[in-house]
Amino acid sequence: MVIANAAQAPTLVNFLQRNGASVRDAPADYREELLSGRLQNAVVVIPDDFGRRLASGEPVRLEVIFDETAHRAQTGRAHHNRPVAGFNREQGTQRLLARGVSPQVLQPLQIEEVNLAGSRARGRSCCSSYLGSRWSVRWSARSASRSM
After folding, report:
1. How far apart are the first and last CA of the chain?
2. Within 13 Å of residue 66, how many CA atoms lie on the same side as its CB?
3. Can you tell me the distance from the alpha carbon of 3 to that of 42, in angstroms, rounded to the nearest whole number?
4. Which of 92, 85, 125, 91 lies closest to 106 in space, CA to CA?
5. Helix 10-18 / helix 73-98 crossing angle, nearest 10 deg
6. pLDDT, tens digit, for every residue of 67-115?
7. CA-CA distances (angstroms) from residue 65 to 2, 36, 39, 85, 109?
8. Where are the domains of the chain?
9. How many Å apart are CA 87 and CA 97, to the nearest integer?
10. Positive or negative, the Cα torsion across 10, 12, 17, 18?
């Protein structure tokens, strides 16, 4: 993960590294490097007041800078957004707990999927979709050879 101004966010960098992210500093000219294609990864930009705002409970705006024409831009954005969202959840949970509020208030619904199909029915469903796809391929091949 490429981060500009990472020194201002040691808690974020620590969280990312604990969760398996490889963090490296962005080059000083990351915008130009993104536009030229020399840098393919998105860059997370940390504001100078990150630590102060985080400590005071204020929201902090992070920018994820990318060039969507770059080959890896879409995966780069997702690669950056998921771990940062995890940090966001952790910070929110800690803020609630510090105020004596259960984090469960943020999730009023618990969704549980209940599959009524037994193991035999699931097996038949799996086999029928496999056989159906094979039949479809054979039918398409047979139809194609007849039309030639």
Report:
1. 53
2. 22
3. 9
4. 92
5. 110
6. 887 665 555 566 667 888 888 888 888 888 888 988 888 777 777 888 8
7. 10, 14, 11, 16, 34
8. 2-101
9. 15
10. positive
The amino acid present at 15, given as its one-letter code, is F
Token code pair at residue 89: 């959840």
| Phi, psi at 67, each rounded to 5° | -120, 110
Distance CA 64, CA 47 (A): 12
- Token representation of residue 6: 């990472």
Q: What is the DSSP letter of 63?
A: E
Residue 53: which pLDDT band, with cuts at 50, 70 and 90? very high
Look at residues 65, 1, 62, 63 and name the one whose alpha carbon lies nearest to residue 30.
65
Q: Which amino acid is at 64?
A: V
Non-local CB neighbours of 115 within 8 Å, separated by 6+ positions: 122
Main-chain phi, psi angles of 115, to 5 degrees: -95, 120
